[in-house]
């Protein structure tokens, strides 16, 4: 009852007795004039409706009329009417009608108990009642309208109607919502009328409507039939949920992003309980383990994560978890607003295999590099040895040449094909040859008409045998020594 006091406190100054009940006839407000009307102390709580009507009946000797009003209200929640009776030359009027009593379209009923004395007082009382209902009507923070049920023309609108739809009262009174182009879909209007005719009311029906600016609004529409002067009218209350719907769409969009994610997504609270998961998480764990136990996804070292959730420390963690032969990378985000941890998992098994293979190849390359470096060092050392040997060979060759140049003979070297590679010695002069004359030529081309024994000696030397013969060349006796490394000819 306290929640309605601020809304209905304007009735405290009314001279008429005012009672407001719910649609189930539970009392939610009564003004001081009502307590005075039934002769109870202002500090005394207002009695329930049955008790209140019983008090009025006893005070004024009127029972049947009051019970008739109560019967009408109980049998028809949309009933509006007035019952009057005479008590000690004073006319008592009980007027009752349904009214909205909250911002969410909740309907209740207002009862006005008034006394009529002289005609002047009756007129004042009527004016007072009109003011009362107008105040109630304009207090409702929604764009309320009363329209003729048959023609659809607006009969009355409240102050908030103009703020809602952009039309002044004079612009809409006597015109229908169809004429004013309120309805985006006329089929929705037809559905509303069908509900009214069938049930007498409708509650929070989603429709689309537009005002003077032609912007489409998402509306939850409520209404019911009321009777004024024996004419049926529709009392309608729209609730604009356009912004709410937009927020809902954003929320659903975010939710669908998680649900449509092909990778597992989980959310846990500070106790480690899984509070949310997408379908991919269930499918993945069922495929891997044969069960739907999502706790397999939780990584080791959960204490640190749970502590961060508990303290509201907005941070991130990256973990890896292995389930059978699959490896998952977990990106874990802690939210301080909701005190939860959102886990986004990605299967990195194939990537890990590639990483392992790259590491193995890298190790093989490193080993090959070491082997190449070792071989290169060995080759360098061998090269250095060859250089030393070559230098030594050149020195020995110089020494040999110095020796040979002083003996009466010839030193001849050939390749395996018996081509002359070098020829020198003091004996060349006797044969009419110069040092290294005929290099690259066959022996028989250098030593023309040489003894066949000389050529045979070379061939035997190529087979690895040392050979020494006595031969003749240009009418000179010669001693020939031949080996695989050298030939020494003395003429």
Automatic annotation (TrEMBL):
Catalytic activity: ATP + protein L-histidine = ADP + protein N-phospho-L-histidine
Keywords attached to this entry: Coiled coil, Kinase, Phosphoprotein, Transferase
Domain PAS: 129-178
Keyword Repeat in record: no
Family matches, as InterPro entries: PAS, PAS-like_dom_sf, Sensor_kinase/Photoreceptor
Coiled coil, from the record: 358-396
GO molecular function, one term: protein histidine kinase activity
CDD domains documented for this protein: PAS
Taxonomic source organism: Methanospirillum stamsii
Transmembrane region(s): none
UniProt-recorded name of the protein: histidine kinase
EC id: 2.7.13.3
Any Pfam family matching the protein: PAS_8
